[in-house]
Amino acid sequence: MKKILLLIILLFYFLPEAFVQEMNRLDLDGAWKFRAEGDINWFDARVPGCVHLDLMRMGLIPDPFMGANETGVQWIGDKGWEYMREFNLGSKEAGWRHVELVCKGLDTYANVYINDSLVLVADNMFREWYADIRKYLRPGTNTIRIFFPSVTAENKLRYERMNIKLPGDEKVVCRKAAYHFGWDWGPTLITSGIWRPIYIRFRDEINVPDVQYILKSLTDSIARLTAVVSVNSTERDSVNIGIRVDTDPVIQEKI
Predict the structure, then answer these.
(1) CATH code, residues 24-203
(2) Could you please report the per-residue DSSP string of 114-143?
(3) What is the pTM of this model?
């Protein structure tokens, strides 16, 4: 029974990632620039990350977990923050039919620009965001810029628009980690930033972006699961889907 439960855990935690189709991609993690809204000076940033870590790395704020430093960094959540980097697009990448920007995690309110064209507006740090950006790209050097409006200002605006005021003050309108607003075990650090990987992926007609495994039955000898596969296609055609556990094919279905 323990072996079966271990197999189920492995299926849920490892197979979905391994199953999702690997596509050509351009990684945008690494070195970026950032600045506060209204400032003219850019500073070095590291992605994935957040504005508190970048400010600390540049020596612009002290460690907020030391002493009473938490009090002196509350202004960060009251300001908007902007991140920017350049990337090169070659002739090979420009030839793909579909070019998508994939943001695995943006914290929290974010306006994303490619070459100064708005391509995405985000408001939830817990979900992934996608945008078709092919028409905004050009051969050679391109720019991606992400503006994060002030979290406290945006929360206040959204809360005031509500006809019914929910308990828990203004943070209840925000799909953001609640502990950022302070807890009995942690400081109040209302941060922003690109907190998970970000990249551009390229494909032509068909891709498999996601798979969900559903446990149907479980005994001491066997576990039965159903795979729900998401397929994106611009063509009317058949797709062969294969799922493997270790090196043995267990399912192969034509849909």
Answers:
(1) 2.60.120.260
(2) ETTEEEEEEEBTTS-EEEE-GGG--SEEEE
(3) 0.78
